[in-house]
Amino acid sequence: MLSKDQIEFLALYDIPLDKVFDARGLSKSEYESEMKKSGKQFAYNVTPCEKYGHKLRSRSGHCIQCNPSVIDFIMRHDSNGIVYIAGSKKGQIIKAGYTKAISIRDESLNRTKYASFNDWKILFTLKSLTAGKIESELKSVLLPYKRVFYYEHDDHQQKSDETYSCSYSKAKAFIIDMCKNKKMIFKIEKEIQTKEYEFRNLKKLS
Ligand SMILES: [Zn+2]
Fold this sequence. Notes:
Blueprint: H1 4-12, E1 20-22, H2 28-38, E2 42-44, E3 56-58, H3 69-76, E4 81-88, E5 93-99, H4 105-111, E6 121-128, H5 131-142, E7 149-153, E8 156-160, E9 163-164, H6 168-181, E10 187-191
Parallel strand pairs: 1-2
Antiparallel strand pairs: 2-3, 4-5, 4-6, 5-9, 6-10, 7-8
The structure holds zinc ion (ZN).
């Protein structure tokens, strides 16, 4: 259990309790690997720091009470968030992406005419403390289906690099299989059942 002082410290630095891992009985390399899998950033019940006997450490083993400056850096690079699949019928393409706030994402895709289309619809969302990592893995799996669009936005030439000629069901299966294979912890938040986004799977010749 966290002590009152530890809870106060975590609150002071805006560290959510779901980022904190109980490392009791685990060696440094054991808790580091467990924490990476589950997206935890800070450990308690670790060996006390030499200087003051603090028992809160970062994943890499720094005493965060002696070195609170590392907290900001760690939290900025935290990949907690949402991975989503959106589809455009006009473009016959899907988009896979990562965001911290899904509620306005399809509105913003349509407002900016992402890839030059304005009929984007969010079809699937998955929440995870390691969403950023899931997204980058997903991008490499989808790479053979990647299709780049050039379009105008704000008087600038833009390039879409998260668009794929691939069916919704295939992209969805890729995400779920990949998460399971890599033992990622995730929760599906939205999953629209539809056959309307079963676009052709056009694999690039390599
Ligand atoms: Zn310390």
